[in-house]
Structure formats: C-alpha cells, structure tokens
Design goal:
about 10% strand; alpha/beta; hydrolase activity; 7 strands; 5-stranded parallel beta sheet; HAD_sf; HAD-SF_hydro_IA; Rossmann fold; EC 3.1.3.-; 2 domains; HAD-like_sf; 10 helices
C-alpha cells in the first residue's frame, strides 16, 4: 500500500535538544550568574545524571519520591514542569532561580536543532502529497520550535500528549493523529526513536520505523535512510499486478 501519511516523533527524531553544558550555560547567562569552571563541570555532570534536561540523557535513577510524577510527566504541563524541575533540584545550584530558568530555556526554540535531513525529508513527502503529523510525549507547546526553524508549514497536524492527557504508547494518540491526517492507519507510517513509546502506533495498524536518538552531528541522514520519500513517489500497482 502506498504511503498516505507519516507521523513523526519530535525529540530525537526530527529535532535534538542542545547539550546539558550548553543548556546550563544559557540559563546561567540569562540569570547573570557566574560559577567557577570546576563547579560548572560538576553541575553539568550531576544534572546529566539526574536526567533534568527534557529530551536529554535519561536519569541514572529516579528517586522514589519523584517516581509517580516522573511516570506521568507527559500528561500535562504541570506534571512535566514538576518532574523536570524536581530532577534539577537534586543538584545544589548556586542560584535558586536557576531551576525555573533551566526549565524555561529548554522550551526556547534556540535550544533545539533539526537533524540535517529533516527539512529535506519533510519537503520530499509534501511534494508527493503525503500528509505529515507530529506525535510527541511532551509537556509544552512545541509548535514555536517548528515555526522558528521554518518547518511548521510542512506539518499538517500536531498531537501532543499534554493536550490530550495521555502519553505514548497509548494508541489513542496515534488514532487521533491518523484521523487528523484523514487517512486510515494502514496507510500511515510512524517514525520515532523510542522502541517502546513509538511502537504503540502498531496497535492501530501503522507501520513503525525507527531512527537512533543521537547528537545532530552524528546522525546526518537517519531519516533519509528510511527511504520514505522514495516510497511515497512510487506509483500504486495497477490491476492484476
């Protein structure tokens, strides 16, 4: 069956968040806070271990008192902020205002970079008339990131967990997205980096393909390698073929 629509995950699939070091530096600069180089490196190391950067490295361990909110963090903006600022507060930073500053920074479009082949693949799919959606486990509105990077015009629908109160792999998100694209799930491909969350699309009949969640410089053509554009351009088989 020809591809009628493609759903993409956001973080680790189309875009990648900046490094923990760049994230912390931006928040420090915004607050006008200075720290010694050795303290900066220690803060980066501890924030990385705690998983405090949304879209960044996973926590080495989730503290028991944060476990419930962490598991449900993508269901609402409140839970998302509580989970990630809670993780950041495990690290003793020199300025109490940094915890909120760090959270605000990760929502800044400047903190995100599209993968090198993202625009090419989205434009190629659009050229062939393929409907495009974004399905993300997230606690905030990512649309400004797409607008800032000139990709919003290539997306037909956004389905965000915090706006629906459920998170992937719940099939309801994928079913909603296919409905918004106007196509049966059997003609829709889901592309993501999470083998558990994004695989939920298979429950509604979507084909599921994966890319690796790598730094931008280390994954120049992960989306292109899926050959979705080539498949979209293939003519459907004729009668008797």
């Amino acid at each position: 069956m020809p591809i009628r629509g493609v759903l993409f995950d956001f973080s680790g699939t189309l875009f990648r968040i900046e490094s923990v070091a760049a994230w912390l530096r931006a928040a420090l600069d915004a607050r006008g806070t200075t720290v010694a180089p050795q303290d900066f490196e220690r803060h980066v190391r501890l924030l990385t271990a705690s998983g405090a950067l949304p879209g960044g490295p996973a926590p080495l361990e989730v503290p028991p008192d944060l476990a419930a909110v962490w598991a449900a963090r993508d269901r609402s903006a409140r839970l998302h902020r509580e989970a990630y600022t809670g993780a950041a507060r495990r690290v003793a930073l020199p300025d109490p205002g940094l915890y909120d500053a760090l959270y605000e920074r990760h929502m800044d479009p400047a903190a995100w970079q599209p993968y090198p082949d993202a625009a090419e693949v989205l434009r190629g799919l659009r050229h062939h008339g393929v409907a495009i959606g974004v399905v993300s486990n997230i606690g905030w509105d990512l649309r400004p990131v797409f607008r800032a990077h000139g990709l919003d015009e290539l997306v037909d629908a956004y389905v965000l967990s915090c706006e629906h109160g459920v998170q992937k792999p719940d099939p309801r998100l994928f079913r909603t997205a296919c409905g918004l694209l106007g196509h049966d799930p059997t003609g829709v491909v889901m592309v993501g980096d999470d083998r558990h969350a994004d695989a939920g699309a298979s429950a509604v009949g979507c084909e599921v393909r994966f890319v690796d969640h790598l730094p931008v410089a280390e994954r120049p053509d992960g989306l292109r390698a899926l050959r979705l554009v080539e498949r979209a351009g293939e003519a459907p088989a004729g009668p008797g073929a």
